[in-house]
Amino acid sequence: MTVLSLSTNSPASRLATRLAFLAAGFSLSCWAPLVPYAKARLGVDDAALGLLLLCLGIGSVVAMPATAPLSNRYGTRPVILVGGLGMALALPALATVDTLMGMAAALLVFGASLGTLDVAMNVHATEVERDADRPLMSGFHGLFSVGGFAGSGGMTLLLASGLAPWAAAWLGAALVLVLLALASPRLLRTRAAEGERAPLFVRPRGIVIMLGILALVTFMTEGALLDWGALLMTDQRGVAPTQAGLGYTLFSLAMTTGRLTGDRVVAMLGGRRVLLWGGVATIAGLAVLLLSPWTPLAFSSFLLIGAGAANLVPVLFSAAGRQRVMPPALAVAGMTATGYAGMLGGPALIGFIARGLGLPAAFTLLSGLMLLVPLSAGLVGRVDDQAQS
Questions:
Q1: pTM here?
Q2: Distances (CA, A) of 331 to 211, 268, 388
Q3: Where on the phi/psi map is residue 201: left (φ > 0), alpha (ψ -120 to 50), or beta?
């Protein structure tokens, strides 16, 4: 890919990447405290809500496969801006529509915009990190977590203070637009070199498939906490809806802290150990969430889950950028699409399981799937060995 302006190793390009991650995390997490309100407004049960949430995943699945090739042809800048704008405009609709068809349409747009923005900003991050003299991916994803903390925490505070959901959502959308405006002039302007154009559709292959499976499981856990964490606390613990968003806020806080320090942690421990011990901590946190009879301890489990999962995804993305089976940008896009299938489609599966067996059983299944992460930690070590050979 040919860079037309700005250096991939310039402070401006790094700032733009951080702003894009911040906007994405903020937009997505604003939705978490709104889920109980949407469920009550529509008058649906867990299974119907899970089916609606599947629309979010469908939107992303449709948008993701073509995002990396489009970014290759036209540059990541316009794709990032279009995705961010779509999320900002869809957020108020999620807080106001009161029909099933209207909510399905809003979730489709929100999901497609998220998928577009996420793939494009990770491709952009790969380009910036590749020419840097130090690891950057955990820090970039840390800004996503900063946005997650700010979005869920801010939305929870606004709703607890009595502000109507539609008004809180419009405030969130306005902030996203400000972040995009600040990032726009600093994003890399790129285009594909002659003979470098990628096909319009790309699928992961080889070791990228394995990395994608691990990302899928990790993202599924994050998606379950985003869409079902608040309902788990209200239905199983009797927490008021205005306070239920605190759990995801604590999760986002732990993710933020872990990722902002993650580049140093990964450099010190290596990706293999980060996956091993991070996966173990995540599973332990889920166990505390499900088994603790004390509500404050159940809330604290969100901190443990967030700390454990913080650097799993950045390590996987860095591995995708180092592997030699596929071009790095296409590998990142393929892994993103596979991973976000878990984050966006997984909550729908959780809903169907919850209807038959209950939310605790669904989260127990999720804990079992997370075992794949520490058991597969050696995969990253093999990627590192191949990259250094």
A1: 0.77
A2: 10, 25, 18
A3: beta
CA atoms within 13 A on the CB side of 236: 21
Q: Are 359 and 93 in contact (CB under 8 A)?
A: no
- At 346, the pLDDT band (50, 70, 90 cuts) reads confident
Q: How remote is the C-alpha of 94 from its chain's centroid?
A: 18
Tokens found for residue 311? 């650097």
Where do the H-state alpha helices sit in the chain? 11-30, 35-42, 46-74, 76-94, 100-130, 137-160, 165-183, 207-237, 241-244, 246-260, 262-269, 271-291, 295-309, 312-322, 328-357, 359-370, 372-375, 378-388
In 3D, which of 78, 46, 291, 31 has the Cα closest to residue 191? 78
Confidence band, pLDDT 50/70/90 cuts, at residue 104: very high
Residue pLDDT, tens place only, 201-221 = 556 677 888 888 899 899 888
What sign does the dihedral 273-276-280-285 (CA atoms) show? Answer: positive
Is 136:128 a contact under the CB 8 Å cutoff?
yes
Give pLDDT tens digits for 132-191. 767 788 899 889 878 887 898 899 899 989 899 999 999 999 999 999 999 999 898 865
DSSP string spanning 348-369?
A: HHHHHHHHHH-HHHHHHHHHHH
CB atoms within 10 A of CB 47: 15
- Other Cβ atoms within 10 Å of 257 Cβ, number: 18
Q: What number does CATH give the domain 8-187+201-388?
A: 1.20.1250.20
Q: Each residue of 259-297: pLDDT tens digit?
A: 999 888 988 888 889 999 999 999 999 999 888 878 888
Partners of 3 in the beta sheet?
190
Q: Report domain extents, the chain.
A: 8-187+201-388
Give the H/E segment covering residue 190.
strand 189-191
Cα dist. 116→62, 233, 247, 309 in Å? 9, 31, 27, 23
Asked if residue 199 has pLDDT above 70, the reply is no
